Protein backbone atom coordinates (compact mmCIF):
# COMPACT_ATOMS: atom_id res chain seq x y z
CA UNK A 1 0.00 0.00 0.00
CA UNK A 2 1.25 3.45 -0.87
CA UNK A 3 2.21 5.67 2.05
CA UNK A 4 1.71 9.42 1.84
CA UNK A 5 3.84 11.61 4.05
CA UNK A 6 2.24 14.95 4.87
CA UNK A 7 4.43 17.74 6.22
CA UNK A 8 2.07 20.34 7.63
CA UNK A 9 -1.14 19.69 9.54
CA UNK A 10 -3.09 22.88 8.96
CA UNK A 11 -6.44 23.01 7.19
CA UNK A 12 -5.14 21.68 3.87
CA UNK A 13 -2.88 19.04 5.40
CA UNK A 14 -5.63 17.78 7.68
CA UNK A 15 -8.15 17.57 4.84
CA UNK A 16 -5.67 15.73 2.64
CA UNK A 17 -4.85 13.29 5.45
CA UNK A 18 -8.54 12.39 5.72
CA UNK A 19 -8.94 12.17 1.95
CA UNK A 20 -5.91 10.00 1.34
CA UNK A 21 -6.87 7.64 4.16
CA UNK A 22 -10.41 7.38 2.79
CA UNK A 23 -8.92 6.46 -0.59
CA UNK A 24 -6.90 3.63 0.93
CA UNK A 25 -3.50 5.23 1.46
CA UNK A 26 -1.48 4.98 4.64
CA UNK A 27 -0.80 8.47 6.01
CA UNK A 28 2.09 9.75 8.11
CA UNK A 29 1.51 13.36 9.12
CA UNK A 30 3.76 15.89 10.82
CA UNK A 31 3.59 19.45 12.03
CA UNK A 32 6.05 21.91 13.58
CA UNK A 33 4.86 21.31 17.15
CA UNK A 34 5.50 17.60 17.52
CA UNK A 35 3.61 14.33 16.98
CA UNK A 36 1.97 14.44 20.39
CA UNK A 37 -0.06 17.49 19.32
CA UNK A 38 -1.68 15.51 16.48
CA UNK A 39 -3.44 12.87 18.57
CA UNK A 40 -6.93 14.26 17.93
CA UNK A 41 -6.37 14.50 14.17
CA UNK A 42 -4.96 10.98 13.96
CA UNK A 43 -7.93 9.67 15.92
CA UNK A 44 -10.26 11.43 13.50
CA UNK A 45 -8.47 10.11 10.42
CA UNK A 46 -8.46 6.56 11.74
CA UNK A 47 -6.28 3.49 11.72
CA UNK A 48 -4.51 4.32 8.47
CA UNK A 49 -2.84 7.42 9.97
CA UNK A 50 -0.05 8.03 12.41
CA UNK A 51 1.74 11.16 13.62
CA UNK A 52 5.46 11.65 13.23
CA UNK A 53 8.18 14.24 12.92
CA UNK A 54 8.72 15.96 9.58
CA UNK A 55 11.87 13.88 9.10
CA UNK A 56 9.93 10.67 9.72
CA UNK A 57 7.06 11.69 7.45
CA UNK A 58 9.53 12.51 4.68
CA UNK A 59 11.26 9.16 5.13
CA UNK A 60 8.06 7.13 5.34
CA UNK A 61 6.23 8.62 2.39
CA UNK A 62 6.37 7.00 -1.02
CA UNK A 63 4.98 10.36 -2.08
CA UNK A 64 5.05 13.43 0.18
CA UNK A 65 2.87 16.51 0.49
CA UNK A 66 4.50 19.73 1.64
CA UNK A 67 1.83 22.04 2.99
CA UNK A 68 3.63 24.49 5.25
CA UNK A 69 3.74 28.29 5.09
CA UNK A 70 6.11 29.45 2.38
CA UNK A 71 8.36 31.09 4.98
CA UNK A 72 8.93 27.63 6.51
CA UNK A 73 10.01 25.67 3.43
CA UNK A 74 13.70 25.88 4.36
CA UNK A 75 12.87 23.68 7.36
CA UNK A 76 11.52 20.90 5.12
CA UNK A 77 14.04 18.04 5.30
CA UNK A 78 15.62 17.61 1.89
CA UNK A 79 17.71 14.45 2.18
CA UNK A 80 14.88 11.96 2.86
CA UNK A 81 12.88 13.44 -0.04
CA UNK A 82 15.57 12.72 -2.62
CA UNK A 83 14.16 10.74 -5.53
CA UNK A 84 10.56 11.26 -4.40
CA UNK A 85 7.64 13.16 -5.87
CA UNK A 86 6.64 16.07 -3.65
CA UNK A 87 3.19 17.66 -3.89
CA UNK A 88 3.37 21.39 -3.20
CA UNK A 89 0.19 23.11 -1.99
CA UNK A 90 1.79 26.44 -1.23
CA UNK A 91 0.83 30.01 -1.98
CA UNK A 92 2.60 33.29 -1.28
CA UNK A 93 1.00 35.51 1.32
CA UNK A 94 3.37 38.38 2.04
CA UNK A 95 1.23 39.26 5.06
CA UNK A 96 2.24 35.91 6.59
CA UNK A 97 5.52 35.12 4.87
CA UNK A 98 7.10 38.56 4.66
CA UNK A 99 7.99 40.08 1.34
CA UNK A 100 10.13 37.86 -0.92
CA UNK A 101 11.77 39.98 -3.60
CA UNK A 102 12.03 37.25 -6.24
CA UNK A 103 8.28 36.66 -6.01
CA UNK A 104 7.36 40.34 -5.80
CA UNK A 105 9.46 40.91 -8.93
CA UNK A 106 7.87 37.89 -10.70
CA UNK A 107 11.24 36.21 -11.16
CA UNK A 108 10.18 32.82 -9.77
CA UNK A 109 7.20 30.91 -8.38
CA UNK A 110 6.52 29.33 -5.02
CA UNK A 111 6.86 25.84 -6.52
CA UNK A 112 10.17 26.74 -8.15
CA UNK A 113 11.38 27.90 -4.74
CA UNK A 114 10.48 24.52 -3.24
CA UNK A 115 12.12 22.74 -6.17
CA UNK A 116 15.30 24.73 -5.55
CA UNK A 117 15.19 23.66 -1.89
CA UNK A 118 14.64 20.03 -2.95
CA UNK A 119 16.98 19.64 -5.94
CA UNK A 120 16.86 15.84 -5.88
CA UNK A 121 13.07 15.64 -5.65
CA UNK A 122 10.34 16.13 -8.25
CA UNK A 123 8.00 18.94 -7.22
CA UNK A 124 4.45 19.14 -8.54
CA UNK A 125 1.84 21.77 -7.73
CA UNK A 126 -1.35 20.33 -6.25
CA UNK A 127 -4.37 21.35 -4.17
CA UNK A 128 -3.22 24.97 -3.87
CA UNK A 129 -6.27 26.73 -5.29
CA UNK A 130 -9.16 25.03 -3.55
CA UNK A 131 -10.45 25.93 -0.08
CA UNK A 132 -9.62 23.20 2.42
CA UNK A 133 -13.28 22.65 3.23
CA UNK A 134 -14.03 21.84 -0.42
CA UNK A 135 -11.41 19.10 -0.75
CA UNK A 136 -13.61 16.51 0.94
CA UNK A 137 -17.02 17.84 -0.08
CA UNK A 138 -16.93 18.99 -3.71
CA UNK A 139 -15.59 15.94 -5.51
CA UNK A 140 -17.73 13.95 -7.95
CA UNK A 141 -17.36 10.73 -9.95
CA UNK A 142 -15.51 10.87 -13.25
CA UNK A 143 -17.75 11.95 -16.07
CA UNK A 144 -20.13 13.90 -13.82
CA UNK A 145 -21.59 17.00 -15.39
CA UNK A 146 -19.76 20.18 -14.40
CA UNK A 147 -17.22 18.22 -12.36
CA UNK A 148 -14.84 20.54 -10.56
CA UNK A 149 -11.33 20.75 -11.98
CA UNK A 150 -8.03 21.49 -10.30
CA UNK A 151 -4.76 22.57 -11.86
CA UNK A 152 -1.35 20.99 -11.57
CA UNK A 153 2.10 22.02 -12.75
CA UNK A 154 5.44 20.25 -12.89
CA UNK A 155 8.58 19.86 -14.94
CA UNK A 156 7.84 16.11 -14.90
CA UNK A 157 5.15 14.43 -17.00
CA UNK A 158 5.18 11.50 -14.57
CA UNK A 159 4.43 13.80 -11.63
CA UNK A 160 1.55 15.39 -13.54
CA UNK A 161 0.17 11.91 -14.25
CA UNK A 162 0.42 11.03 -10.56
CA UNK A 163 -1.47 14.14 -9.47
CA UNK A 164 -4.05 13.56 -12.21
CA UNK A 165 -4.73 10.13 -10.72
CA UNK A 166 -4.89 11.52 -7.19
CA UNK A 167 -7.25 14.30 -8.24
CA UNK A 168 -9.52 11.73 -9.87
CA UNK A 169 -9.54 9.67 -6.67
CA UNK A 170 -10.59 12.79 -4.74
CA UNK A 171 -13.28 13.50 -7.35
CA UNK A 172 -11.75 16.21 -9.53
CA UNK A 173 -10.76 16.66 -13.16
CA UNK A 174 -7.26 17.94 -13.97
CA UNK A 175 -5.90 20.75 -16.11
CA UNK A 176 -2.15 20.78 -16.64
CA UNK A 177 -0.68 24.29 -16.41
CA UNK A 178 2.69 23.16 -17.78
CA UNK A 179 6.13 23.56 -16.19
CA UNK A 180 6.70 25.02 -12.73
CA UNK A 181 7.65 28.33 -14.32
CA UNK A 182 4.00 28.67 -15.36
CA UNK A 183 2.51 27.72 -11.99
CA UNK A 184 1.97 31.40 -11.12
CA UNK A 185 -1.15 31.16 -13.30
CA UNK A 186 -2.98 29.33 -10.54
CA UNK A 187 -1.69 31.29 -7.57
CA UNK A 188 -3.21 34.01 -5.44
CA UNK A 189 -5.03 36.89 -7.14
CA UNK A 190 -5.27 35.06 -10.47
CA UNK A 191 -8.64 34.22 -12.08
CA UNK A 192 -8.33 30.50 -11.31
CA UNK A 193 -7.61 30.94 -7.61
CA UNK A 194 -10.11 29.46 -5.11
CA UNK A 195 -13.12 29.60 -7.42
CA UNK A 196 -15.19 26.61 -8.40
CA UNK A 197 -14.65 25.81 -12.07
CA UNK A 198 -14.94 22.89 -14.44
CA UNK A 199 -12.11 21.90 -16.76
CA UNK A 200 -13.12 24.23 -19.60
CA UNK A 201 -13.56 27.16 -17.23
CA UNK A 202 -10.25 26.45 -15.53
CA UNK A 203 -8.42 26.36 -18.85
CA UNK A 204 -9.98 29.70 -19.76
CA UNK A 205 -9.03 31.22 -16.41
CA UNK A 206 -5.45 29.99 -16.75
CA UNK A 207 -5.25 31.63 -20.18
CA UNK A 208 -6.62 34.89 -18.74
CA UNK A 209 -3.98 35.02 -16.00
CA UNK A 210 -1.71 38.06 -16.08
CA UNK A 211 1.52 38.55 -14.24
What does the model show?
The protein is α/β, with parallel strands linked by helices and 211 residues long. It has helices at residues 11-22, 39-45, 54-60, 94-97, 101-104, 110-117, 132-135, 157-170, 199-208, and strands spanning 3-7, 26-30, 49-51, 63-66, 85-88, 122-125, 149-154, 173-178. An 8-stranded mixed sheet has the order 3-2-1-4-5-6-7-8, with helices on both faces. β2 (26-30), α2 (39-45) and β3 (49-51) form a beta-alpha-beta unit. It holds the Pfam family F420_oxidored.
Q: What's the layout of helices and strands?
A:
Layout: E1 3-7, H1 11-22, E2 26-30, H2 39-45, E3 49-51, H3 54-60, E4 63-66, E5 85-88, H4 94-97, H5 101-104, H6 110-117, E6 122-125, H7 132-135, E7 149-154, H8 157-170, E8 173-178, H9 199-208
Parallel strand pairs: 1-2, 1-4, 2-3, 4-5, 5-6, 7-8
Antiparallel strand pairs: 6-7
- State which percent range the strand residues make up: 15-25%
What is the number of helices?
9
Strand order of the largest sheet: 3-2-1-4-5-6-7-8
Succession of helices and strands: EHEHEHEEHHHEHEHEH
How many beta-strand elements?
A: 8
How would you characterize the largest beta sheet?
A: 8 strands, mixed
The average pLDDT value, as a whole number, equals: 97
Residue share in helix: 25-40%
The SS-based structural class is alpha/beta
Protein name: NADP oxidoreductase
Keywords: Oxidoreductase
Organism: Microbacterium testaceum (Aureobacterium testaceum)
GO molecular function: oxidoreductase activity
